[in-house]
């Protein structure tokens, strides 16, 4: 490999890249209002490039450190040992909390995570769309003094990432690195939060790409289904954002900057977690230097309940749409009031597992009606304590209603009679087995710490997990199923081919 020269690569490229035996492929959606490249236009593009004067790429000098200035940092002023997690909590002088846990299950992995309360719920309606897309857009700006191309060059050969995102009620930071590149990850965190970069040229480029991509998908049946589900299940709430070429094109850099500066304004609103194969003696000075130098806001925030809820009662719709492949999609959404606690949300996981077994047997195997029924059932605490579920599958259009009837029959059976003991035991054993496997991964400990700090629940404690799962009886799941399904608000949709 070392013997291959740049000149040899260039010579081989010129040998292969000839005008003979060239095939040009143009692809896109079929639509009356869509104009594709003609053969002449495609050839013109190639000719313009081949005759253009192209100057060699000029490589900008890059250093080894992403942060060039001296950082004052902040010392740890309070330490709390967390023996239940084999972890430690540090409070820095700038009032930022950092929780650290050494874990060497994955030798080459360190995970960084962080959250604060607020999220999209704190944004006015006109900023919800920029807020949703901000994480993707901001990543293309670069960070600090570096545009995105330069930043990626500086990260070449390193395994370190940091990204930001907005949930409905939280701001989130996530990152990962190898032990060798831990400091690079901490430098990225510092740049993202203390030295955000806003680049108009990069903004125009990414918005143009996003708009073109969404524009090409606007008649895609899967997007139409997804948009329909979003609108119907939220009662056409004005905060429900549907991506279109037009509304993406209108997102300005000033809007992105406003969202970014407000939601990631102060590090003291965050709790950070660092879990992985790195020693305390390495982590502590890095935390004090980089997280200790982050700006703070001295504000305390919570979220707002914007009342973006599923409509009350039951909504049933059949939606016809042009489809190349004649199939129907059945989509059922359910929402019920339910307290968020370990007993309830673990019970919902068991119900999901049982229904997965039942639908595989009754709908897929016995009826041969679909490749699989997709089920998601979970408990949520914020902005309201609820149990939420979705059940969806694709099938032959003529069988949609018959197969959907089986879905409801099995739910009714669960509510009236409870599950079979065999299915209950199988589901509980699967959850317990997965639990033991998950404990050997850093992501388990990050999510466990996150739940403890954001919900006040120690899910690593057997009494909040194993003991509850092992205690569930057929009658317990029957009762929980009744809570979930008896008074649930339901959106029942069938997407079918237009006649």
Could you explain the architecture of this structure?
Strand 2 and strand 3 form a beta hairpin. A seven-stranded mixed beta sheet has the order 1-2-3-7-4-6-5, with helices on both faces. It has a five-stranded mixed beta sheet with strand order 8-12-9-11-10, with helices on both faces. The protein has two domains: 76-293, Metalloenzyme, LuxS/M16 peptidase-like (Cytochrome Bc1 Complex, Chain A, domain 1, 2-Layer Sandwich); 314-497, Metalloenzyme, LuxS/M16 peptidase-like (Cytochrome Bc1 Complex, Chain A, domain 1, 2-Layer Sandwich). It has 499 residues and is α+β, with helices and mostly antiparallel strands. The protein contains 16 helices and twelve strands. Helix 11 packs across helix 13, helix 11 (342-366) crosses helix 16 (474-485) and helix 12 packs across helix 16 (474-485). It has helices at residues 6-16, 39-51, 128-138, 148-154, 182-194, 200-217, 221-233, 245-249, 253-263, 280-290, 342-366, 400-417, 421-438, 442-455, 466-471, 474-485, and strands at residues 76-82, 87-92, 97-102, 110-117, 160-166, 170-177, 271-276, 314-321, 328-337, 374-380, 386-395, 489-497. The chain is globular.
């Amino acid at each position: 490999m070392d013997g291959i020269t740049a000149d040899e690569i260039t010579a081989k490229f010129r040998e292969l890249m000839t005008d003979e035996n060239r095939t040009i492929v143009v692809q896109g959606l079929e639509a009356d209002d869509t104009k594709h490249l003609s053969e002449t236009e495609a050839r013109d593009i190639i000719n313009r490039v081949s005759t253009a004067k192209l100057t060699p790429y000029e490589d900008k000098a890059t250093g080894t450190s992403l942060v060039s200035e001296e950082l004052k940092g902040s010392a740890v002023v309070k330490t709390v040992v967390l023996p239940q997690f084999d972890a430690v909590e540090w409070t820095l002088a700038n009032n930022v909390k950092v929780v650290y846990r050494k874990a060497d299950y994955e030798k080459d992995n360190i995970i960084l995570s962080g959250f604060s309360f607020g999220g999209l719920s704190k944004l006015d309606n006109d900023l919800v769309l920029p807020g949703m897309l901000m994480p993707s857009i901001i990543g293309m700006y670069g960070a600090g003094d570096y545009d995105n191309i330069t930043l990626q060059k500086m990260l070449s050969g390193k395994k370190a990432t940091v990204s930001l995102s907005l949930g409905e009620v939280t701001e989130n930071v996530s990152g990962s690195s190898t032990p060798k590149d831990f400091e690079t990850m901490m430098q990225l965190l510092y740049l993202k939060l203390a030295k955000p970069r806003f680049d108009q040229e990069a903004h125009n480029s990414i918005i143009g790409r996003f708009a073109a991509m969404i524009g090409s998908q606007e008649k895609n049946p899967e997007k139409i289904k997804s948009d329909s589900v979003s609108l119907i299940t939220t009662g056409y709430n004005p905060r429900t954002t549907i991506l279109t070429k037009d509304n993406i094109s209108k997102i300005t850099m000033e809007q992105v900057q406003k969202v970014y500066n407000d939601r990631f304004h102060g590090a003291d609103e965050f709790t950070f977690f660092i879990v992985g194969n790195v020693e305390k003696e390495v982590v502590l000075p890095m935390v004090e230097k980089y997280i200790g130098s982050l700006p703070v806001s001295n504000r305390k925030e919570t979220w707002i309940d914007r009342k973006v809820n599923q409509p009350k009662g039951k909504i049933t719709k059949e939606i016809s749409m042009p489809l190349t492949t004649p199939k129907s999609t059945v989509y059922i959404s359910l929402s019920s009031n339910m307290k968020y606690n370990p007993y309830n949300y673990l019970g919902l996981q068991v119900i999901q597992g049982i229904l997965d077994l039942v639908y595989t047997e009754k709908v897929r195997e016995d009826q041969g009606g679909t490749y699989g029924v997709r089920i998601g059932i979970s408990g949520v605490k914020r902005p309201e304590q609820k149990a939420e579920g979705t059940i969806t599958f694709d099938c032959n259009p003529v069988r949609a209603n018959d197969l959907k009837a089986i879905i409801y029959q099995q739910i009714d059976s669960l509510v009236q009679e409870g599950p079979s003991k065999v299915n209950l035991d199988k589901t509980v054993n699967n959850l317990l087995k997965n639990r033991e496997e998950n404990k050997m991964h850093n992501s388990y400990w990050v999510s466990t710490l996150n739940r403890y700090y954001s919900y006040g629940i120690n899910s690593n404690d057997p009494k909040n997990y194993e003991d509850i799962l092992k205690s569930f009886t057929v009658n317990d799941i029957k009762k929980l199923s009744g809570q979930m399904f008896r008074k649930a608000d339901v959106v029942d949709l069938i997407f079918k081919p237009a006649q």
